[in-house]
Every structure is written in structure tokens, then in C-alpha cells.
Amino acid sequence: MKYGYIIGVCSVVLASLVVGCGDRPITVREACNFDPTMCSDLNQDNWCNAERRQLILTRYSHKMNPSAESKYYLLKDLQNYSQCIELASAIEHKKLKEKQSHRIEAYINSLRNIEKRAQETRQSEHPLLLYWHWANRNNQAALKRLLALEGAPIMQTSELQFALATYYAKENTDKMLAYLYRALQLYQPGQRFNVEIPESLATYYLNQGSVDKAYVWSLVAVNFKSKVLDVEQLDDIFTQPDERKKQLRDIADRLTDRITEGRFNLRPDWSVPTN
């Protein structure tokens, strides 16, 4: 087989699927080489690497397979990147002023892109986009349409159960808790996991005084690479004996494995279905 043919096959794959050559995930470099506009309006230094990487991969995914769901994640990742680069743009680079200028430019670009995408999706009836416009634009009409779909089959996804949980956080904490657990039950391997789910559970249990459960869900959030929690921070907050913490860490690790494998079946009372 000639090398030119191999390169040609890889190019076809790049142009049709969100994978790299050989069915592996595409890299940021490959995505940027495929379409430089996916990367050219972002900062090029080391700030916000994780947010920048996720945004580029989401842009590529949306370009290859545009959908209402990909538009939602594009908005979400644009916001995450924008929030990060806003902070970075305020940090003065003493030696290279142009680096700070590039971060400011990237921040302005992100705001423009968010507004553009928001205008494009403001009439959408897809529940993910209804949720985004309520949560980020306080669009009450979008919230009304979202709640009208509450029991519909289309709402039976992890992200949309979390969306309902965010609404009920102030309205009905029992329903909020049920939706958070349902969001974990519906997660399937390969999907994007929303780390705000275990973070929200940790906050709820801490407010309720359920320290052990709060510690467990905090550890689960850390296992899923939470940006607001870390192990050292948790050790300062939670003061259980070391032996008890070890037991709780084991529970957190088992829950993490169950979620990752799509086998989570705990209920809010921590019972499991018998059938």
C-alpha cells in the first residue's frame, strides 16, 4: 500500500468523523490543521489550556455533525473559555505585553461568538437550548417551554435531568435530588459527563449536615476532575478520622466506577432497585 493512499484515507476520516486516523480521537493539532479558523481567534499561550482544548474539539464536532445538542455544548464551552480567558486577560505580562493583548483580544472574540450563537439559537425549541437561554439569558418563555417537556421522553438524558435539577434547586429540593440521581443513572460511557452533578450533590449534603455523603460526592467530583474541589481542600473541610475517610474514599471510588461504566443505580436514599 502506498503512503499517499494512507494519507488520503486519513483525510477522508478527518473530514467525515470526529476521530483521527485509525479511529482514535482527533487531536487539537489535527483539528486546527483541518480548519485553522477553529483556533485562530483563541489565545496561543498556555493560559486556559483545558478550556481552549475542549472548545476546539467541540467546534470540530459541531462542524462535522451539526445538531441542536452540539450547538448547546458549543455555547457551554464558549462560556467556560470566556470566563477563563477573562481572568487571564487581567493578568499583566511584564515582559511581553503582546501576550496580554492577545488574551484580551481572545476574550472579546469569545463574547462576540457567544452572542452570535445565542442569537442563532434563541428561537430553538430543543430542550437543551431552552435550558441554556433560561439559565444564561433569564429567558422565562424558554423556561416555560422547557418545563412543559418535563415528563417527555426527550428529557431522559443525563444533561437534561441536570437541567431540571437546577430549576428545582430553589423550588423543590426533593425533586432536585431525584433529578440529580436520575442524571447519574442515565449517563452512558462515551457521553460528556457534567461534573456539576456530583458537585451539586456534595453541596446539598453539606448543607443538610450529612457530612459523610458530602465527603463522598466531593471525592467523586474530584475523580471527575472538578475545577472547584481538590483533595487537600477536602481534608481541610472534613475532619472525620482517617479510618473513616478511607472507607468513604473506597465508596467514592466504587461510585465513580459505576458512573463511568454506566452502571450507577443508587436512589437518593442510597437504596438500589431490587428487580
Order of helices and strands: HHHHHHHHHHHHH
Number of helices: 13
| Rg estimate, integer Å | 21 Å
For the termini, the CA-CA separation is 54 Å
Q: How many extended strands?
A: 0
Average pLDDT over all residues: 89
Share of helix, binned: 55-70%
Largest sheet: none
Which range does the strand content fall in? under 5%
Uncertain regions: pLDDT < 50 for 5+ in a row? 1-19
Give the number of domains: 2
Approximate shape? globular
Structural class: mainly alpha
Task: Give structural notes.
By secondary structure, the chain is an all-alpha fold. The chain has 2 domains: 35-149, no CATH class; 150-275. Helices cover 66% and strands 0% of the residues. The protein has 13 helices and no strands. α8 runs antiparallel to α9. The protein is globular and about 50 Å long.
Structure described in brief:
With 275 residues, the protein is mainly α. Helices cover 66% and strands 0% of the residues.
